[in-house]
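lol forgot to send this yesterday, sorry. struct tokens for the thing we talked abt
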């Protein structure tokens, strides 16, 4: 399935941290629409002249919209792609939204050896990533799925550890948490629906090339 209308390119943008930069980057290439804003209550915003539809989704749901072809392409963090494991093409590393997935604990619970964390409770928005990581370390944990404000969990005794993304490190610091293991770095990626990529190849390829050029120009600056 591809985004219903062959005449339009449907672009999914995630609410949250990546929205502004994504919208600005696309606008620089002329891909924008009147009223396109994260604050917009309107969730589908159309540019009739350029035949572009923007849809604004919850971050974790974005790969699903693209996998099912409700959107042809989208911009989303590698962290979400690793967690959601959707069947989409990853076309380009957009080199913004740098963060890393990591494991953190309250200072008082820090252990000498990583295996000493076995069987502790881990709060996270990324249960699959957490599961895979601890399995790779050969230890079993109790994973507790939360939807946000993960750092709160160890402070109130819901969990002993967290698996989360860290960007500036401010949230960890303000909640006296220490990073004890790195899982993977993450940046924003351009993704595409597999069928759309074939059916709308010219438009998607052109945008990908334009984004590559824009990134190249950024590196020269
Ligand atoms: C993310 C993440 C951390 C914070 C890290 O949360 O889950 O809480 O940002 O950023 P920092 O290292 O710059 O402090 P987000 O703001 O997306 O909100 P959420 O906790 O509600 O998911």
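and heres what i got for the seq, position by position
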């Amino acid at each position: 399935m591809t985004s219903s209308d062959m005449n339009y390119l449907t672009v999914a943008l995630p609410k949250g941290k990546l929205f502004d930069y994504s919208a600005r980057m696309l606008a620089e290439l002329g891909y924008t629409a009147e009223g396109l804003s994260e604050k917009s209550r309107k969730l589908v915003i159309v540019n009739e002249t350029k035949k572009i539809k923007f849809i604004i989704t919850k971050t974790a749901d974005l790969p699903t919209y693209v996998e099912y072809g409700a959107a042809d392409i989208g911009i989303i963090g590698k962290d979400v792609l690793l967690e959601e494991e959707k069947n989409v093409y990853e076309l380009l590393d957009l080199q913004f939204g740098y963060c890393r997935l990591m494991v953190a604990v309250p200072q008082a619970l820090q252990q000498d050896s990583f295996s000493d964390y076995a069987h502790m409770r881990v709060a996270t928005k990324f249960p699959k990533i957490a599961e895979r990581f601890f399995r790779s370390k050969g230890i079993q944990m109790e994973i507790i799925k939360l939807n946000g404000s993960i750092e709160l969990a160890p402070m109130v005794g819901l969990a002993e550890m967290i698996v989360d993304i860290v960007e500036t490190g401010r949230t960890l610091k303000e909640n006296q948490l220490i990073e004890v293991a790195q899982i993977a770095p993450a940046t924003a990626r351009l993704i595409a629906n597999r069928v759309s990529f074939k059916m709308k190849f010219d438009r998607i390829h052109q945008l990908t090339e334009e984004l590559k050029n824009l990134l190249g120009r950024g590196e020269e600056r």
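DSSP finds eight helices and eleven strands in the chain. anyway ping me if u want another try
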